[in-house]
Amino acid sequence: MDSVGVAAAAPDAGPGPAWQSKCPWGAPSTTSISCSLADVMSEQLAKELQLEEENAAFPQVVAAAEGPFITGENIDTSSDLMLAQMLQMEFDREYDAQLRREEKKINGDSKVSISFENYRKVHPYDSDSSEDEVDWQDTRHDPYRADKPTTTPRRGFTGKGKDITTKHDEVVCGRKNTARMENFAPEFQVGDGIGMDLKLSNQVFNALKQHAYSEERRSARLHEKKEHSTAEKAVDPKTRLLLYKMVNSGMLETITGCISTGKESVVFHAYGGNSATEDKVIPPECAIKVFKTTLNEFKNRDKYIKDDYRFKDRFSKLNPRKIIRMWAEKEMHNLTRMQNAGIPCPQVVILKKHVLVMSFIGQDQVPAPKLKDVTLSSEDMKKAYYQILNMMQQLYRECNLVHADLSEYNMLWHDGKVWLIDVSQSVEPTHPHGLEFLFRDCRNVSQFFQKGGVAEALNERELFNAVSGLNITADNEVDFQAEIEALEKMNEDHVQNHGKKLSTFSSDGDPPIYDE
Ligand code: ADP
Ligand code: MN
Question: Domain check: are 178 and 277 in the same one?
Answer without folding.
Answer: no
